[in-house]
Design brief:
The protein is α+β, with helices and mostly antiparallel strands. It folds into 2 domains: 177 residues, 3-Layer(aba) Sandwich (D-Maltodextrin-Binding Protein, domain 2); 209 residues, 3-Layer(aba) Sandwich (D-Maltodextrin-Binding Protein, domain 2). Helices cover 46% and strands 12% of the residues. Strands 8-9-7-10 form a 4-stranded mixed sheet. Helix 9 packs across helix 10, helix 10 packs across helix 18 and helix 18 runs antiparallel to helix 19. It is globular, with a radius of gyration of 23 Å. It binds alpha-D-glucopyranose. Alpha-D-glucopyranose binds next to helix 9. Its main location: periplasm.
């Protein structure tokens, strides 16, 4: 046999051993903000297994993917094998996700925070594995607070007062575009989060309680919304009424906002790219409405699950295990500041070096506010839509806050029952 033939034979054997001879491809949905990290995970999976994951970018605003998923799943389509899932969608899509419990070793399941894993474990079926934690946090300009001799605020009123003072003084000193506080008040799921944070931290509950009682029509909720309404045009630009996460982040990262509410990934984007606020940012749990209340960051972990109609369920489940496993969660944390759902990574020296704030986000997870998706199940989206549309109208002044909450409450009573 010639040397050339021998070499060819050896490389075929190697390829077989690596599994490339039966290499296959799965199609995966990934969020727009962490698309690049998903591509990295796919590259790592290919290097490890020889299999490919084709990553499809989801719409920039996550809830725009809901009708897309609904269509895909109603048609029992096998076009996409792996779905990226917001925690509030798990109840909505549970009947269309494959039970992967038997395919995921128990120790691998137990590595995740119990309650986070639990949200994907419905009626004994494991329909999704957590990829990372998300909780609403407050980012602030450490340099500006120091300049004006201020401590990070404990209450929303303190925040508003500091925001106003710094904004006015900075504008007078020449920073004409400076605003005190940027957040998300566009009519979409993000506003459900921002509003629930203000209301819950003011003692006003979380729209619908765990037992199904509609609680939204109460004075503490009205007070929180009135307060936020007063911020618009004074410490927050009118534009917040159209801002989602990315639009509001752009203002903060351009150096034009003292305080900014967003998810942990903003640590990565604001500190990573060499922009004007590198080294000038602090991060903390959200303020409270009243002394004695809890900081109530909206809880928003993200998951991956397998489409029940996938033609390659085993391979799809393997990819889900890989992308939600410790190596990829560590990569996401280090490269994008995504907070792991695997508890052991919170003491990992490489992760802590890059994300010193992790010690502050853990209490924020513990005190977080949960959206009422557990009780409302398949009707969650309609409930949330009714809530954020009503709150948006209250913030613009199109609807009186107290009367609006009474109307909303009656509507939610009906909607919650169609679950
Ligand atoms: C983040 C959260 C998600 C939430 C969304 C709102 O992606 O992880 O839970 O629904 O923001 O915009």
């Amino acid at each position: 046999m010639s040397l050339k033939k021998l070499a060819l034979g050896a490389s075929m054997l190697l390829a077989l051993a690596a599994g490339t001879a039966r290499a296959d491809t799965v199609s995966v949905f990934c969020g727009a903000t962490d698309y690049d990290l998903c591509v990295k995970a796919a590259d790592a999976w290919k290097a490890k297994t020889g299999n490919e994951a084709k990553i499809n970018k989801m719409p920039a605003q996550l809830d725009d993917a809901i009708p897309l998923y609904q269509q895909l799943l109603a048609a029992k389509s096998s076009d996409v094998d792996v779905l990226f899932l917001d925690v509030i969608w798990l109840g909505m899509f549970k009947n269309n996700l494959l039970d992967i419990k038997a395919m995921v070793p128990q120790a691998e399941q137990d590595a995740h925070f119990k309650s986070t894993l639990g949200a994907g474990d419905i009626n004994g079926q494991l329909i999704a594995l957590p990829a990372y934690m998300d909780v609403g946090l407050m980012f602030y300009r450490k340099d500006l607070l120091e300049k004006y001799g201020m401590q990070p605020p404990k209450t929303w009123d303190e925040l508003a007062a500091q925001a106003k003072e710094i904004q006015d003084k900075e504008r007078a000193a020449g920073s004409k575009d400076m605003w005190g506080y940027t957040w998300q008040a566009k009519s979409y799921e993000g506003l459900t989060c921002d509003a629930i944070e203000l209301i819950a931290s003011n003692g006003g509950g979380t729209i619908i309680a765990d037992d199904g009682k509609v609680t939204i029509d109460n004075p503490a909720a009205a007070e929180a919304i009135e307060k936020a309404k007063g911020w618009i045009g004074t410490i927050s630009p009118e534009g917040v009424l159209g801002y989602d996460e990315e639009a509001s982040r752009a203002v903060f990262e351009a150096g034009n906002s003292v305080f900014h509410r967003n998810w942990p990934y903003v640590w990565g984007t604001s500190q990573g790219g060499g922009g004007p606020i590198v080294g000038k940012v602090g991060m903390m749990p959200l303020p409270v409405g009243k002394a004695g209340e809890k900081s109530s960051g909206c809880l928003g972990p993200m998951y991956f699950g397998v489409n029940k109609y996938s033609a390659k369920p085993e391979l799809a489940a393997e990819f889900v295990r890989f992308i939600t496993g410790p190596d990829m969660q560590k990569m996401r944390a280090i490269e994008g500041a995504y907070n792991p759902s695997i508890s052991a990574l919170y003491t990992d020296p490489d992760v802590l070096k890059k994300l010193p704030f992790l010690k502050d986000t853990q209490p924020a997870f513990a005190d977080s506010a949960t959206r009422p998706s557990g009780y409302t199940g398949t009707s969650y989206n309609r409930v949330s839509q009714a809530f954020y549309r009503a709150v948006h109208d209250m913030l613009t002044g199109d609807e009186d806050v107290k009367a609006g909450l009474t109307k909303l409450s009656a509507r939610l009573e009906k909607l919650k029952e169609s679950r």
